[in-house]
Amino acid sequence: MKTVVLAYSGGLDTSVCIPLLKERYNYDRVITVVADVGQPASEIDDATKRAKTLADEHYTLDLKNEFVDGYLFPSIKANGLYEGYVLGTALARPLIAKKIVEVAESVNADALAHGCTGKGNDQLRFEVVFRATDLDVVAPMRDMNLTREWEIDYALDRGIPVPVSREKIWSVDENLWSRSIEGGELEDPYVIPPEEIYEWTTTPAEAPDPEIVKLTFENGVPISLNGTAMDGVSLIAKLNRIGGAHGIGRSDNIEDRVLGLKAREIYEHPAATILLSAHRDLESLVLTRGELRFKAMVDAAWAELAYMGLVDDPLYADLSAFINETQKRVAGDVKLRLYKGSATVVARRSDFALYSEELVSFGESSINQKDSEGFSKYHGFQARLVQKTMK
Ligand code: ARG
Questions:
Q1: Which atom of ligand 1 is nearest to the CA of 265?
Q2: Is residue 357 part of a domain?
Q3: Which residues line ligand 1 (CB under 6 A)?
Q4: Tens digits of residue pLDDT in 278-324
Q5: Residue 317 lies in domain
Q6: pTM beyond 0.90, yes or no
Q7: 148 φ, ψ (degrees, to nearest 5)
């Protein structure tokens, strides 16, 4: 009796994987796992129902809290952005992969499977976790080089109830942090995206009057919205709704995938845009110039590892340790104005602020301006020496 555990989304690719794992790969038992990382409830329900009709055994796991605490909050602390991408899909994959491994170990499975293609990043993010075990790894989509047409025919033939269209339509991946839309006509980077691809965000031009939101941070992460304390999952979900109504957080990026392929990726991420803007602003108030400059390099290295799914690399832990140390003072309130697609920080305060109104103002202060005279004499000193040697 050979058992395989499959990361299941409910979509065409992973649905087709279930019979394929039996027919072509000779597994006797296919166990599916749906990971709830904040997709719409209807999507989770549909996937769960479909899995129960197709698989031998099924698990739907609510991973939302773990996703926020273990991946999204660390990403806020790291100002997590890869080429302008807020990393939603990238951050979810390691968590999903780890849960698949846990299920596989608990049922004594022989293999782990995913439905990723051979062109994207997700195969790498899944397998870097899968291959840390001694289990076999199966990737039918990649292995069989399947086309969408073939999959649709095969699904119809096997009576798999998948809502599919033969028109080339975009592929969507969404979770609490971002919704990504790629493929179909969007593959031409010179095509202006039609409004209908967007589901989380209002067309910015049609968004309502401005609205101010207040976020409170502690240890670098948001703890309350408009004065109401909230757990991370609720706060992000609520901010997605508020920001989405103002058309905030759309992006259209040319992205360098890990393999080197350039891809055109469109995203919606209202909460991420608001939280990352607020966090970065608060850091500028409380961290020293040296910390800010150095942390920007650490953040970039962190985001690159997160994008590649290398969260078990020792460097990821090293960088995270530095980032966490800096976040102890990242506490305070930030107000943003949401208006027609933009989220602008308009006010901030912190008990750890290094900013001093008294010192910087032009009025009477404890700074004796004459003290700066000596400093000024040596500013640019070496450049003047060079100029002299050239005369
Ligand atoms: N480019 C992003 C990433 O690699 C998102 C991919 C999402 N997949 C999709 N079918 N829309 O993380």
A1: 1
A2: no
A3: 89-90, 121, 171-173, 180, 182, 255, 265
A4: 999 999 999 999 999 999 999 999 999 999 999 999 999 999 999 99
A5: 173-349
A6: yes
A7: -60, -40
